[in-house]
């Protein structure tokens, strides 16, 4: 036993020595960090938080309520117990000072707020706004939490803050939007803590992951039909396999080269790895249909998995209701952590009254929890209550004006550097051309050689939404939102000059001809159609070289157009026609005066019917009439060896095709003119960019504001005039005496008597009308009852039901009329006396009726 005790003492002594060595190493690292200078961009000036004005802040910022003082006492007691039980862990982040130098518990700094902007109803909109609106400030010491935590209102006012400020603001917005969100105090990598995105791929450049399609398992059937023989060429299969092998080898070589580059680009080893303090937001699954728990980095606004290797550990989490300390081992980062905050073994809760966070409860469970608390309160009445509820937030309501929400970035501009890319953001209307975002892609890490530029626009009158420019090929692609004057959807070009390479895509629903796409170069033009009644889907035109060009003054077009060489049209299958009568392709060879028709394939045929028409020479024509000969048409009828000898049918077909050829030529010229018009309009739109302003944006829309002010003034004038023209109850009686300003006593008494007499007659007439309707309804009910007594033996069940319904309606009407008549009899004397009193006090009659 003594030997065992000695061994135990030796082991304890060895562990104490190791702990002393670890603490000495940590102290050395802290000394190095205190001497270390944090790298801040030179263009971001240091902000002196001690110089902010706190005189206008509410009293809740400057003093603590009794409940807050009690909460601070509980937090100190909790920290003492925690330090005693876990002496090797860092102190908790519980009650830093605010901007007024007053200690405030971190949970009361969260102010749940739902702001009146649709974008902020979702977590990604809230995270994007916080990351854009605020400017990041690094912690003074990267391995210790800050000594102060300012209110979200102050952070919004100055648009600056550290990771804890970012997280508290974002958490307040998320909880207000209905999410189960928590602030997290933990540890992360240097890239996360310092907002270093230079080694990460820009999110706009990430390709969506392709989901592999699972092959359908074919059920084995003993009596299945034998498959047809495989008629595929084995040589072609060998060639395809050879090409696939070469592609795979090239891909592997490319991956090896990328791995080598990645090894070179790997960040240097961080001496403070695992010690850098960071704050972020935890969103638990459940509320707002969140399927899986995830993290949000408030600096970037991006979501991360809870197994992300950049997050290295968690000390504590809190929301506006409670505070939890993580008791799980973080040796493997956050990958193995369980985020069930109701588990008292894994998470130590500070305020024990709330056994389970209400955010994790359903509505029924939450009501049950609240009712259980009320029951417990009744049972524990008279006893010392050891539980405690979180006091309300001391922070003033969070408010963001529409102008601040729209401007977002500090000074309206923000720049983010990524790996071989630079992302720039601007506030709407800050740039005259509507530019709000630009992504520049580089070929090297030093960002010197530009490869591609992508620009996003907003509020443009020409509906331009995005522009991509390839700097290597000088190819420009523009994308338009629906609503462009010419129905443009996309435009790809290298120059806005005519008869160069252009690819134009259109919103075919907005066009009568169903044109979806047009591709043009110097000698060709191809148009693609969708949803046409004639089943046309492709039209291809070829042009020849024009002769000597003649330029007109003040024009950019030539007087002679390009000669049309060939027009080719392709049609989809029309099931209402036989296949050998339904044209699939027709080619008009203009210069050769030949027309080729190819029909759709018939079922079980491998060749299609064809017809070739050769136009007659001018010498063979009789005026404008075509002289048809058998040599002018060559026909191949699939499945038949007989030739069609009916020249009349062929003559009519040729005549119709000739007429259609003329129409096609006209359509080709219209297409050329439309291309020139589009290019001219696009050039004018880019020369003088115009921005649209919503009619609801009265700050920018001067015309709308002027209309609103004019309408408001007109309404005020109308109301004033209406008040002046209010009906005068004495006007009919004053007319009789000539509207005299001064009346005699006799005239005043006459006006009074006439007014009272008129009211008396109107009250009597109204009562008589109600009495007459009442008597008529009673008489009608008596007649109905008499008719029923005489015919009740002959009535069917339906007729009896109709009678009872009718009697019920009449009885209801009689009841209402009786009530109205009774009310009129009661209120008539009161109305008469009220009018008499009003006449006595009327300034026009008071002089004569005051003593009457």
From TrEMBL:
It comes from the Eukaryota. Residues 741-848 form the Dynein regulatory complex subunit 7 C-terminal domain. Residues 1-21, 237-263, 365-386 are annotated as: Disordered. It is found in: Cytoplasm, Cytoskeleton, Flagellum axoneme. GO terms for biological process: cell differentiation; flagellated sperm motility; spermatogenesis. Pfam families: CEPT76_peptidase (PF24656), DRC7_C (PF24671), MORN_DRC7 (PF24667). Residues 277-350 form the CEP76/DRC7 peptidase-like domain. InterPro entries: CEPT76/DRC7_peptidase-like_dom (IPR056290), DRC7/lobo (IPR033551), DRC7_C (IPR056292), MORN_DRC7 (IPR056291), Papain-like_cys_pep_sf (IPR038765). Residues 1-14 have a biased composition (Acidic residues). The keyword Coiled coil applies. Residues 370-381 have a biased composition (Basic and acidic residues). SUPFAM superfamilies: Cysteine proteinases. Residues 411-694 form the Dynein regulatory complex subunit 7 MORN domain. Keywords: Cell projection, Cilium, Coiled coil, Cytoplasm, Cytoskeleton, Differentiation, Flagellum, Spermatogenesis. GO terms for cellular component: motile cilium. Residues 647-674, 764-798 form a coiled coil. Belongs to the DRC7 family. This is Dynein regulatory complex subunit 7. It comes from Accipiter nisus.
